[in-house]
Amino acid sequence: MNNKRTRRPYSRAVLLAAAVTTTAVLAGCQNDKMNYEGPQPSERVRNDRAPYARVNLDTVVIIDKALQTQDSGKLAVERSSARRTPTGTLEVFAVIRNRTDFVQQIELRTQFFDANGAPVEGPTTWKRLILNAQSVNSYTELSINTSAIAHYYVEVREGR
Fold first, then answer.
1. pTM exceeds 0.85
2. Which CATH code fits 59-158?
């Protein structure tokens, strides 16, 4: 009796074919996703440095890094809100404090949203605001639409 193992001549070929098929299927799945043209579900882009980055309605946001320092920041949003005018439009206001010892020139704009959070009006044009050293100044903006407006979002950047 022979104790040597008997080799099946097709076993390596079968394993090789299975490996090639698996690789081709996996590569094909990845390529199908990459080459797909047409609508695809959206994905939220995660950023470890800003895990909560998103549009928060009814807020004023300083978007320019030049105005943000590690200690306390050059600006402070002291107050912001909105109210209905007699004509039914929404008036947004923000009170901004200059925390520095020199004059700051900033720009602000507003975007308006409906009750569901969908944009109703495009962003307004940038409005320039001059802040004297260690002072407070205010910004106001009016919506064009009346009843459709429910929320606002104000962006602040350094003057250009």
1. no
2. 2.60.40.3230
